[in-house]
## 1
Amino acid sequence: MKSKWIAAIGLTAVMMVTGCAAQSAVAKYESPQGWSVSYDSSLFEVTEDDGTNFTYKGEADGTNRIRVSYYQDKMPDEVLYEVMENADEMPEHTRSEGYFAGRTDVWSIRTSMASQAVPGATEDFIAVERNGGTLLLQITTTAQADDATGIGVSDALAAIVDSFELEDQQPQTYSAFVPGKYTATVTDEIDGNEVSAEYYVQLNEDHTGVISMQDEIPVIWYSREGKILNAETSEQIYEYTVEGDTLYLTDPAESESEEPVTFEFTREAAKE
């Protein structure tokens, strides 16, 4: 069976925790680094080395584990490259981003790849900028012989991720240069008359935003690769680049025969 962890990490495991409360033995792990999680001690063994390991001990094939480590003075991309590279090359992997542990004030950078250490397993990495460094979750899940077991493992691991608490979490700086309101005045000629319209791109610190160009579209913006997604459909609709106070918004070409269209916007001065 294919691992269902990728789908599970974006979902809240509250229903699973609530439904099994009478049968589980919920414990809390508190790290001296200021983060804590809740976990079912009947399903997980906790060990410490240079990181903290939550290893699934229920009936399941292979290794299923969350490993939590903190990298001081390193940002998410640097940490991900360090832990994923093999023989100075990055293995084939997928990339995504999203809110961490249900918190709209904490953004995370994510990658997924086939495990290089555990046969038949997938490694998912969640990198969270935290107070001058990066908190890294490495989730190892082994493909299970049946769906029920696989879903049980994924739900148990997801419940730990969803329970993360971060003490004294400071504002993230990874993409602090991006948020703002950017405007552009577009002039066109209609029936011999010049008509001007103001377009704008509003990108908020919580990675939400609005693009207003004829229509207003609620969006989510990514830190890496300049992706902007439609917040309602999760489809990528634009790419962006910020250089100083200028934002370049590109409408990707729909086919190889078309040229992408780029619009230029200027950041509005912050109101005092």
Note: The two ends are 56 Å apart (CA to CA).
## 2
Amino acid sequence: MNRREWMRLGIASVCIFLFVLVILVVMTFVKSRETVDYNTDPVEEEIIFHNSSDMTEQEIRLFVEEKRTELKEFFETAKYYTVSEVAQGYTQEDDEKYLVVDREFLEQLQSLLTTDAYGMFWNEFEEVVPKSDTFFQTRLYLARKDLFDFVYVTSAIAKFDVSEEKLILENATNDKITAIINILLCDEENICARDDKYQFHLEKEEETWKIADFTTLIR
């Protein structure tokens, strides 16, 4: 076999090798496409309620809703004062920065929340001196004006941008109940612009059930 024939044989071998390589690559690609799962939507796990308390599930559900309603009604009827009208040493310019509440407001809030949950708000207040002509018979406390804004919008008791609320029970003992409040804003075609979940926890504190968390967003 002369040199030219060897060259032809070599070229033919290279072509055959490249052809086989291309076939293998194509087959591998097709097989990979067949096995890829393009469904990237997260699968939401069903929450199983665990109850080791002395109450039935229905009793717990009603109790949690009752405590949530109490807190919601408290904020819906809350009385806020204009700082320049009731506090000594403040002007109308301060009205855009601060709000004022009375001692009764804080006592009612304290009766609903655990010590830690209440402390989140109490630490934001400072006492102010009432104006002499207001005739207040109670002590007054000042905080920044937007302190409670998130409560009405982004919490388990939100009242704005809400079309539906769902209570999901997680766990219950005789001392603690954990639940989730699903806040939804959906149209008639069930297209939801909002689907937020917030923790709603109850704890016994000195034998009294109080709300331990209603502000934590579950991500």
Note: Confidence is low (pLDDT under 50) at residues 28-43.
## 3
Amino acid sequence: MLRRELSLLIFLLILQVGCVEVRTYAKANGYVVKELVIRTNRYYEGSLRERVKNTLDGWSIWRSRRGDVVEIHIRRKFNPKQLGTPLPGMKVEYERELKWFPPIGHYRYSETFDFSRFAKAVNLLEPELGALSKVTLTVVITMPSNVLPEKSNSKDVRGNVAKWVIDNLGEPSGQQRFEFEVTARGVRKILLSLYILVALILLIGGYIFYPRIAERLKDTAETIRMRMLTMRLRRQRRKLE
């Protein structure tokens, strides 16, 4: 029953939507936020939202409007180490290497989507598979730091964002396997900000308390010098006696 409902959802999406956007946010803390944006019209909005609620458990849903176009947002936050398959046919991996000093982070996110397994899991029929040729899929992955183009398979990299555009999703229907791989490297901004804050506190504290500390150190040094001089004089008197 669940598979059939998801199949009806995808079929409705295919018939009424010419563009689907998948946004992925790889967080520095190891979590991933995935968001599907489905653009449709007001007539199909209610039915589409209802099918999504009944089909995708654990995903939050809301809407926004841009003129006559309604955007249905489907969003979920998960840990790839605990949930590596957020959707049928999709496998997600997220690796991080975090250094304390220097505060540098290395991140690698990879995602594979086997459409044939997805189509089989949701029981897509041949007419539905054929209709997929009308769909344009846009995949956007946002990383915690700047993306390294030479270590990513995206041809559209801007800062910490990598993008893919797939036209005619269903050619050949049910036989496509997509791979998205992104590597990023950069400063751990929160940790660097903490280091800067600590340094500023030390500098400000030193500026405020330095005169007092310097005076106390001077008094202490003078006291030690006087004691040493007194002990020397006593030793000299003992020798004369």
Note: Helices lie at 2-16, 42-55, 115-121, 126-131, 189-240.
## 4
Amino acid sequence: MNEVIDFYTQPVPHSQEHRSRLLQEIAFLEGRLTRLDATGDGDNAYERALGRTYHALLGLRRRELATLNS
């Protein structure tokens, strides 16, 4: 689990390749959140915690993408 946290909290260098990676990660996280909603997001503590984590990561990646775009 720590490897996942480390991966998602490292700053992304500025390049087209990394912009593409950010877009892929954003799409992945949005897809996971959509699937959680479709299966009854919040039905249990695990799903609620997972949803909060995905929302936090999504916000982080969107801010990083905005920084690249500015």
Note: The CA atoms of residues 42 and 69 lie 34 Å apart.
